[in-house]
């Protein structure tokens, strides 16, 4: 599906950007680095909850001679110096398709991908969160082209309210094959912040976005839109509210390394809580769950909110006595994120808040 990226005049206000829809085109607001003032980005984001800023020079080039371009050597160094930080919230989007890797734990796969001077042949796709360690965060951010994109730290009417969580998501993978390497199935995230910005540091990542019914109610111009295909290349920054957009990602074929880093943002001035994204973003299996087995009961996790997906691996069942349980709809492998079926409203083209 081809998309039309709505370009804005350098002096235009993003809130006045017109969204065009037609059977052959799909809209998304795109800004160049020159157009991406703080006010423009925040106004565009308020309208659509997704903005693509193309080719930030800060992100695609190193700012000092001593600083190496971010890549696998940086991730290996982080794994060597802070192994518990890397493995605490390590997730395998796609496991290597050979050997015993399919049944390996997250920590074993992390060691396999980052513990040696040379990564195993692909395809593989993984992620982890740098959090709950000031030393690890300081070292990691020092190697990044920026802690915060220029358009969110520059002066503007809303710049002073923008805050970020003290954590960084790292997504990396390689795909030597011709076919694209898929990430998680389409889903939304149960989040409380305003959204996340993703900077592509190396290679390419392809996003597919589709508005939820809640987002369509907020912006009627998005009715009938999606799925949108958005290609992020080195230097691009995608800001997206993953609660209001159904989303999935993939690494295109013949991509030696796709590396991106993300941070959660609070645009209303809310003070971020202490991060623990293993619990906030979702839960993943640490062992095999056979089809039909109980993953956990309502009594064990009464406040748990799982993301919804059209290709979910779990369902909610009545186990008697009025009690509910999350049950595996199919065999769930270690490292897979738990997700539940989309609501009837969402299946019919609507959407709602995860519960």
From TrEMBL:
Species, as recorded? Zooxanthella nutricula
Name the domain of life this protein comes from: Eukaryota
Q: What is the lineage of its organism?
A: Eukaryota, Sar, Alveolata, Dinophyceae, Peridiniales
> In its UniProt entry, what is this protein called?
Uncharacterized protein
Matches recorded under Gene3D superfamilies: Cupin (2.60.120.650)
